[in-house]
Amino acid sequence: MSPVSRRALVIGGLGAAGAVGAVGAGAALMTAGEAAAPFSDAVPFHGPQQAGIVTPAQDRLHFVAFDVVTKDRERLIKLLKDWTAAATRMTAGQDAGEVGAVAGIPEAPPDDTGEAIGLPPSALTLTIGFGPTLFRTADGRDRFGLAARQPSALTALPRFTGDTLDAGLSDGDIAIQACANDPQVAVHAIRNLARIGMGVVSVRWSQLGFGRTSSTSTGQATPRNLFGFKDGTRNLKAEQEDLLREHLWVQPGDGPDWMNGGSYLVTRKIRMLIETWDRSPLAEQEAIVGRHKGNGAPIGLADEFDEPDLTSVGDDGEPIMPRVAHVRLAHPDTNNGARMLRRGYNFVDGSDGLGRLNAGLFFIAYQRDPAKAFIPVQRSLAAQDELNEYIRHVSSGLFACPPGVTGAGDFWGSGLFA
Amino acid sequence: MSPVSRRALVIGGLGAAGAVGAVGAGAALMTAGEAAAPFSDAVPFHGPQQAGIVTPAQDRLHFVAFDVVTKDRERLIKLLKDWTAAATRMTAGQDAGEVGAVAGIPEAPPDDTGEAIGLPPSALTLTIGFGPTLFRTADGRDRFGLAARQPSALTALPRFTGDTLDAGLSDGDIAIQACANDPQVAVHAIRNLARIGMGVVSVRWSQLGFGRTSSTSTGQATPRNLFGFKDGTRNLKAEQEDLLREHLWVQPGDGPDWMNGGSYLVTRKIRMLIETWDRSPLAEQEAIVGRHKGNGAPIGLADEFDEPDLTSVGDDGEPIMPRVAHVRLAHPDTNNGARMLRRGYNFVDGSDGLGRLNAGLFFIAYQRDPAKAFIPVQRSLAAQDELNEYIRHVSSGLFACPPGVTGAGDFWGSGLFA
Fold it and tell me: Which residues form the domain of A356?
């Protein structure tokens, strides 16, 4: 049976405008030198590392965390294989299954749900991670014979000062991050993975992000978060191979071999009290963040990409960069050199029932070792950051993302279950 | 003080790629003949009708319903004037206020929140509507001296069979629909209107839609809803002037003069039980909808735009178009010629706590008279539509949308408050 290619439908059904017109969407955030073509093209699924980490951050997100509801290790392995096949197809712009949304026998449910028919691959990436609870339940039970393979880096995050976490919106056995430049493509992917997983996994929580807040490539302009500031200027970038080796990718000897070439994913849903923020004077906002709002330059400097000056002192004897500015507290120099690759998204989840928009940042960060990166940085921020007056951490997750799927026959988590 | 133009920042800061690259986003749904330029351009705010109704449906939505919390009619009128000024600016790609996000005095809060700096107008439209409760409270109190001006068409919708409405997510005194091709632009607009309204209005509920499900112009290809089907093929279109006069725009003599040239807006948040739907055979899905899933053609016909055949009978003596197919039940021939202009959006609001995605359709329809359009059609659908097995109506709203703002000095609702 020949697979139905959504791309083929696009070219056949909508004409050249479908392919040409989809190029460059959202490109107000692109720089002059950036090629527009990848915007709607496919991102290769196979490779030594998972796509969706250093891939130039796509515009839209659908993130899901699953609980595994089976006790059967073989069923779980089969699902990971089925998911890998579907992910390979969907990231290439094809239907989730071989039969497809509209072919096959009428008496059977389609093996694709159909809402992405006619849409290009849209740079879809699907990135999987395994939570601590997959290895061992809270009471120590080895659910799937994986306890001996649990990395020491993969233990529940500590509680941070001020945390107001919703347990039902936190953690999970398996997480999948779908990023794409068309939200319908990202939603379609998660929805079909959930469909395929029926009876084996159950959706624990899920989050849409409408706008990226980070750049992961030097070719991308820096976007703005819902505080109105440029965010992630100093983010790790795909082009910084030495830094990625040091700070992003798990190296041999760090822990169990199955994680070599992988990375640890931290998610934090951070509600922003935007109504309060919006009443703060511009100068106070800038002092709290440590950047000028207009062009994103660090306080006292002229250009967004100028290195923040943490040492100079003004005429009043005070540091030019305020002592508790977010930029200072999060800076590697303040955190033993700690760095992460962030790829968070803005969200609005309706209203909060108290007359306010339920809005904020879905923080996503990848790192080689959370104990040397997110955990100490967040400890410092939680204790001192004046932004805390305007934010609430409401969800948290830590997941071990294995290396990439290297080709046909390989599957998500093959090393873990080998 | 010279206004800060976000567009000027785009051209100054990001170079040609900002302007060129942003053209054509999401255009997989455009047809070959459709011009790409309007995708990021401004839609004129002023005109005899409000923009955002027959405007070619933009890709993204942020909808908000407010409660008015003041008792002071003059404060309400001042807010409507302030909102009109901000809407005029934001739809042109400018900051919400004259000072802007980054200019002005540092000791004052900015009069724009900043997250749309650098983004083009993105075809933003802002469309206002007034709910029945603005005219008269549930216990009959005339809150703002408007009771005598309440149109008879603007009374709370009846309860329909199967309704499972959440009162907190329904109705409202004032609704504003923000549509744009960049979700950050739509969110920015609603967020700034809420900011400006602080103390006068309070956010009652708010809804993001990530993907349009209707075309409102013959130049747009028909998108798909989360059942995977093309939706809105037979929708009223901007080009059908005679039909719009008959079915969409309020005409002189219909009711109070202040609504002439306006339209009535019905919103329904319709949760889709996609997990159940996804287990249904393709043939059953097609029979329930009354269309072929692939190209959207009515059952028994070849092309999406073929007129559905409601009368032909097959060899088995049964109608070729099933008796309770959604297409038949919603067809004008089955509803005394009733037609609406729909511009709904797909949504995913995370998960439902029961292992499923919380996903569906945020239905939006405009019409000349709900008593002749939405109400009878929905009564029929609620009683007979087999889709009811797969959907739940969880929120409902009816709003009177006045005619357009015709120029400087005019404001949203000027006719109502005159």
Answer: 8-14+38-417
